[in-house]
Amino acid sequence: MNFILFLLLIGVLITSLFMGRYPVDPVTVVVIVVSGILERIGDAIANITGVKIAFFWSIPHTWSIIVNTVVWDVRLPRAVAVVLAGSGLAVSGATYQGVFRNPLVSESILGVSAGAGVGAALAILMDQGTGVIQLSAFVFGLLAVSMTFAISRVYRSNPTLVLVLAGIIIGGLFSAVISLLKFVADPYSKLPDIVFWLMGSFAKASTANFILVVPVILIAMLVIVLLRWHLNVISMGEEEARSLGIDTKLFRPVVIVCSTLLTAAAVCIGGVIGWVGLIIPHISRMLVGPDHKDMIIASILLGGSYLLAVDTLCRTLTSVEIPISIVTSILGAPMFLYLLYRAKKTWS
Questions:
Q1: How far is the first Cα of the chain from the last one, in angstroms, to the nearest whole number?
Q2: Domain 86-343 in CATH: superfamily?
Q3: Quick check: 244 pLDDT over 70?
Q4: Domain ranges of the chain
Q5: pTM value surpassing 0.70
Q6: Which residues contact 44 (CB under 8 A, 6 or more apart)?
Q7: How many CA atoms lie within 13 A of 74 on its CB side?
Q8: pLDDT for 131-155, tens place per residue?
Q9: Taking the alpha carbons of 126, 132, 133, 135 in that order, is the dihedral positive or negative?
Q10: Residue 345 above 60 pLDDT?
Q11: What letter would DSSP give residue 137?
């Protein structure tokens, strides 16, 4: 099933590259991508060896510079950013659901999305560029989760419950701060920018804007993938996990920190995007079963495919790009109702 999901992701990726206001046929899209990859491999070898090698499989450029720019410099970086964000949100949601043993937990349960929103709003108010806005969103997202952990450390009676409640408190606090920043923002310039960012969009995604968070996403995701079989044990309970030799005091913070990094990185790339981390793990669980060894991989592939398909709809459905969080919410609510009906109030 995961191989089928991988093929689905490739299909959605190719589709997103030829759809848009500047149409490009699918064959040309594939040729441009393959040619660009081969050229960069040749450049990398030339930088290492100092010798420019002419590969016999090099593809002659029969397309215009405009088409090459549209596919390689505009649509491909955006598609990669969307896939990374969707995969990160889905894995984060699946990890939280396993750690907290609650299928209704989402990736924003610890307040990271609200914290990132405050950071972005502050940067926008100070008239900063896209890079500073993303960095501020990332830092404030981590700050919000740090505050959540600090509150949970005070009360040790039920660490899991207190951590969730602390996340709700911090999320509410930072949401209030966002409302305050929107209230004091200039209604003609700053306020529209803040509102649009909070609704989510990948319109400004480019290689320069998200290249710094790529290592964060890949490393955090790799850690969760390597530890994913532990989630099967910890989802059975603290005592069972300890009896099987898992150090829950070490494992739980590690996966929560990695999940938080994934969510913060995804939010700083595309803004606040809801429902992905809640819906995709449920669908993955229906497709491959509750075993996290398969379900985490399925969430990575399905999360990237889903968010990329939604982003393609947002930028092609109307003449003006629709904020992506609007569409994910419209699709997510009925999908979640259907999943609840299928599950019949049980989770296994």
A1: 19
A2: ABC transporter involved in vitamin B12 uptake, BtuC (1.10.3470.10)
A3: no
A4: 86-343
A5: yes
A6: none
A7: 17
A8: 899 899 999 999 999 999 888 887 7
A9: negative
A10: no
A11: H
